[in-house]
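User: I'm preparing a small set of examples for a lab meeting where we compare how different chains pack in three dimensions. I only have the primary sequence for this one, and I'd like the structure in token form so I can line it up with the others. Please keep the answer compact; I'll paste it straight into my notes.
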Amino acid sequence: MTAATSLAPPPLRPPLPHASRRVPQLSRNALVPGAGDARSHARQEFSSLEAWLSAPSTLQLPLHQIERQQQTKGREVQRLLLQAHLQRRGHGNMGPALCVRQGDDEVLYTHRRISTRSLKTVFGTIEIVRMGYSHAGAHSIYPLDAALPLPARVFS
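Assistant: Understood. Below is the structure token output for the 156-residue chain.
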């Protein structure tokens, strides 16, 4: 098993010269999309569910139809809330490079890129935006996958 450590510079220190020449330093804010947007969308969906439950036409429906619709709409609200939660957790940005111990050696992963991964949850499919670190001849490492921890397959 390999252990990964961040090579992100401490605050007020310049970035590592060997990593910053190859990979521009990105601010955390530049990488995290507005989680408020997803929360706002969840609130809108919840308000829509409340309005539907109070509508005169809904008041005429049999209970089993109301339950079915409430379950579907409620699951979507929960999916949106989970999506917002993951957005707030960030992308797993560990800085301009990642140093990974492999046996007695340390390997520097300096190539970074943002990618998106789908994950099927009990609430529905969500998209996870994550930072990947790589170097020539090696598989990418995604710190967010380990931090959550995410399964290798698309199902949670």
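A couple of notes for your slides: Residues 6-33 have pLDDT under 50 and may be disordered. The beta strands are 3-6, 98-102, 105-109, 111-121, 124-134.

User: Perfect, thanks.
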